[in-house]
Structures are given as structure tokens and as C-alpha cells.
Known about the structure:
With 131 residues, the protein is mainly beta. Helix content is 0%, strand content 48%. Strands 2, 4, 5, 6, 9, 12 and 13 form a seven-stranded mixed beta sheet that branches. Strands 1-3-8-7 form a four-stranded antiparallel beta sheet, with no helix packed on it. Strands 10-11 form a two-stranded antiparallel ribbon.
Amino acid sequence: xxxxxxxxxxxxxxxxxxxxxxxxxxxxxxxxxxxxxxxxxxxxxxxxxxxxxxxxxxxxxxxxxxxxxxxxxxxxxxxxxxxxxxxxxxxxxxxxxxxxxxxxxxxxxxxxxxxxxxxxxxxxxxxxxxx
Length: 131
């Protein structure tokens, strides 16, 4: 059973930056998985933020973070990252890393599948953006 662990969350002022990291707890290879980042704010449903293909060549962003967030993966470090810039108070949430063994593409474009389609999850890391 793959277990993921996130790090890098914290408190930042509006306009600031954070980079979240995610890796496998036991060092299991993440190469074959599509990796995604989700977030959940209090009282709201879990929202897909971004995902990246196993090759790293394709990615997806929800509209609200396009141009501000960048997802990347490093095979040598067996990790996936979410680089977050120009943070806004509405980005405040617990951010989760997830891995998907099978994934859908739409005419070659990576799609953000719903949370229930992802197979493995981390425990989450809190991101708080103050105004």
C-alpha cells in the first residue's frame, strides 16, 4: 500500500510563495503514477488543483491557479512538487498529494479526475494565506 507524505505548508502573507513537496513514505517508486494535488478548505469539498503525467510532459491546472501554481516531478528524488506563487487568502486549505494508477486523457490532454478516482493519498499539509 503506497503511502504519501506532504511537506512545505505554512503561513504566508498574501502575494507570497510556498512550495509543497510530496514523496512516498517507504521510498516506493512513484514513476508509474499520475500525481495530483488537491485542496480542501473548511466546509468545502475537496478540489483538484493540479496533476502531472507519469512522464512529466503533461499537466493540468484548475482555472483558479493557472499562471500562479506550477506542478513538477523529480524522478531522482522520487517526489512531486507544487510551486505556489502570488498566493491569495482563498488559497487557504489543507493540501493533499495523491497518486493515480490509471488516468484519463481528453484528446491527448491530461484531465483532472475526481478525488475518488485516486488510489493513494497523503495526510495533507496546511497552507494559510493571510490578507
